[in-house]
Every structure is written in structure tokens, then in C-alpha cells.
Amino acid sequence: MAQYKDSSVSSVKEEIIEQYQMKALIGHGTYGQVKQAYHRLTDTKVAVKILRKVKSSELRIKNEVDIFKTVRHKHIIRLYQVIEKEESVYLIMELATRGHLLAWIRKSSRLCEDEARRLFTQTVSAVHYLHQNKIAHRDLKPNNILLDNEGNIKVSDFGLSTRVTWGQLVTHACGAVLFRPPEMFLLKCHDGCKVDVWSLGILLYFIITGKFPFEGRDAIQVRSQVLKGRYGIPYHLSAKGQNLLCQLLSVDPNQRPNTEQIMEHPWLTPFKECLVCANEPWPNKLDPIILRVMCDMGYHPCDIQRSIKDRTFNEAMGTYLLVKEKQNQTDSSINLKKVPPTVPPCPTPAELSNFRVPIKRRASLPARLTSTLSPEFQSLSVDKQLPHKRGLSATLPAIPLCFLQRDHSASIDPGQDSVVSLGCSFFISSSERFPPEQPHDETITSKVKKRSRWRRVASRIATIFHRICFCMRAPK
Fold first, then answer.
1. Per residue, what are the HEC states of the chain?
2. Residues placed in the known binding site for ATP
3. Where ATP is bound, by residue (predicted)?
4. Annotated binding site
5. Which structural domains are found in the chain, ordered by start?
6. What is the pLDDT of residues 117-150, one digit of tens each?
7. pLDDT per residue as tens digits for the range 432-471
């Protein structure tokens, strides 16, 4: 399965997949590779798992994507978007900046008991969530346990995972040799959840000692040691920790505890609050601040709502989740810029008496609003290489939206630009669009001058017409 590299990311030729630009290869595995990338609309770093389509892996890819779409937990890596192409499937995922647990522990030899207990508690919380949702991971190992920027656990890689019912036995053996339980080596039907519990025991031993309990030159030696169930007890581990380790590494699967019993073990009591990680709910209502940002990018509110509701993991949903993630990281402080006022339509001569000339403005930048959106979004603009988005429809209900200040050389739609302010939609035709080299304020001023000349001409016409009417004599 995919493994994150220990050293710095290796440079590769950059490629662009829709809104994502691939930067470097950070992991590889039997069925695909993982690249670091960034979302060009929000400049957010992500990890992209690339799964190559071959006949032998179609069902496995479909199963992995299906499971990944349904899980959402604090200590499970997040999925943002799924992009399916003719030859590959791209999984846009959360980027764990500190890499995997294997490299981290090898650098520090081993962890102290309190830190090991914290990381193990977070892992148990994620596995318990999977088992509650009838999912057996079946590939728990340090390579698939990642660490985020704050040093918290993120379980990843569902390539070998399967959906199970209570008591259902699985026949197919899989996973790394060092993590296989005795029943797999005996080629017996096994419980996928009990396999995960055995892997938790191997993982706990590795976190405490920096070594694996069952090692050998080849698979035959490893099999012999696993079937005997003999391993060295870490002397520096407390009695409660040793007791839990012995339960997890029981040769008889019926003697192993389930995840609920593991969570109640006294050794995990100091970090019991880490175990109470409820299922993170999917957003049901759109955040109005995020909606403003995405409307500026060119997304339609109805498309955003539909994608979140149906869990489509398409472009709109992926962008929404990434903006939401960016907002959480910046404590909801995204700055919005005030939109220049739109120019009203040209008045008719009958409306000239009620028409007020707009106040002239200097060609300066518009003032900022005291706001609630992060500085990262001040420079949001639509990339010229991105596919064009549709503007907002004038038939939508009034929504208090606002556009960000952006480059006038980029446009959302080649036919028309949509400007939304105070719940009303105004469309500027292509003939009235502002030239890129001309400032917005100067354009407004020039239009005001033209209308002033029109008012003077209309006034003269009205005066002449008035004089002609008064010069005519009434019939006798």
C-alpha cells in the first residue's frame, strides 16, 4: 500500500489535474502512488493518491473509494474530492505534514509511555469508529498511521478494507507479513475486526520499543514466532500497559478484546477524553461566509448545496471542504473587500428630473470592510488555465453575497460577468465590460460624463419643443 517517504519530497515533473497542481512524489505502494499538490483556487496543500485503472484492480478501487466516502472522524485522514479519468482515479486527501509513524519513531528510537499512550488512544478511537460502522481496516501498520501538523494520529489507506457484519468471517489473507495474526498464517477463516486488534498490539509494541515483536529473515521464521506467540515484554512499560499488550497479542482470536473493551482498559484512562471522539457530522447548512467566497470563484449556490447534500465529492464539494478547512485553520478570519458600486442603467428623458448624477470617485482602491474572512482569501482569483464557471442566475432568491477584489483580466464566464450585491444580480454585457488597462473608477467617471452630456442634449430638445408648442396659435 502507499507509503510516505522518510526523506524530503522528491521532485517530479509538475502536472495539473483540474484545479490541482502536482508538486512532488511523497509516497508509493503496490497499487498506486501519492503526490503532494495544492489547490489553485485556495492555495491549500493536499495529498493526491493516484490509483491506476487495470482490470484486476477495478473492484478494489471501487471498494476503497466507497469506504473512504463514508468515513468521517477526527483521527481518520479526510477525503475532499474524487476525480475519475480514463486511466486513473485521483483521491484528493488531507495532507499529513509530519509523515507516517514508522519514520517518526525510527528517528526518535522510541517514545515515552505517556506519548505512546496518547497516540495509541487516538488510533484506538479511529479503529473503534470503523468497527462501529462495520468496516475492518485489515492493514493497520505504522506506514498507514500518519501525523498531522499538531502531532495527532490520522489513520489512512483503505485499499484492503472491507465491510463486514457482526461475526462474519473473511477468507482472503492480506496485509504485511509482520502484522498478520496466527489465523492468517494457518489459512483459516478469520474475523476482520480481530485482525485489527492483533495489528493494534503490534503497533503498541512498536511505539513502546521501536521494534516489532515478531521478526525474522523471511516469512517462515516470522510465521513460526507468531504461532508460538513468544516475544519480549518491554521492561520499561508499566504493569497496566503490559497487561493490555498481552491481551491484544493473544494467539487465540477469541481471547482478544474488542475495541470497546480496549477503550475501557485502565491503561488508557489518562487520555480517555481522546476516546470520546464522536462522528464528525457532514455539513447540512452552507456557511454563508464560505458561500460568498465560492460564489466569487464562479460556483452556483444550488450546485454547492446539492453536492454537499448528496456527498458527491465533486469539484464543488471538494472546494467547499477545502475552504472550510482553511477557515478553521485561520480561526474564521478571512477579509472581504468592498465591491465598487454598480453603474445604474441609462435613464430615459422622462426620468431625467428624478435622475441623480453619481458622485465622482478617485481612481483609488476600494475601502476594506471590517470583516470575518482570512487574509489568504484577499488574493483569490480565478486562474486563466481553469475551466470557466457559470455566473449566478438572476432568478435566484436574494442572498446577501459579496465579491472579493480580484484581477479584472480574469473572468468567470466569457459571455458575461455577474456582479452580486445586496441580493440583486446585475449583468454587464460584453460590450460594456471594463477594459483591463482602464481603472474601474475612471470607467465609471467616463460614463457619468457621457450621461451628463446626454442630459444637456435632452434638456435642449425639451426646451425647443416647449417653445414650438407655445408659438402655435389655437384654432378659432
1. CCEECCCCCEECCCCEECCEEEEEEEEECCCEEEEEEEECCCCEEEEEEEEECCHHHHHHHHHHHHHHHHCCCCCECCEEEEEECCCEEEEEECCCCCCEHHHHHHHCCCCCHHHHHHHHHHHHHHHHHHHHCCEECCCCCHHHEEECCCCCEEECCCCCCEECCCCCEECCCCCCHHHCCHHHHCCCCEEHHHHHHHHHHHHHHHHHHCCCCCCCCCHHHHHHHHHHCCCCCCCCCCHHHHHHHHHHCCCCHHHCCCHHHHHCCHHHHHHHHHHCCCCCCCCCCCCHHHHHHHHHHCCCHHHHHHHHHHCCCCHHHHHHHHHHHHHHHCCCCECCECCCCCCCCCCCHHHHHHCCCCCCCCCCCCCECCCCECHHHCCCCCCCCCCCCCCCCCCCCCCCCCCCCCCCCCCCCCCCEEEEECCEEEEECHHHCCCCCCCHHHHHHHHHHHHHHHHHHHHHHHHHHHHHHHHCCCCC
2. 49
3. 49
4. 49
5. 3-93 (3.30.200.20), 101-275 (1.10.510.10), 288-336+371-433 (no CATH)
6. 999 999 999 999 999 999 999 999 999 999 999 9
7. 443 444 444 455 556 666 777 778 888 888 888 777 765 5
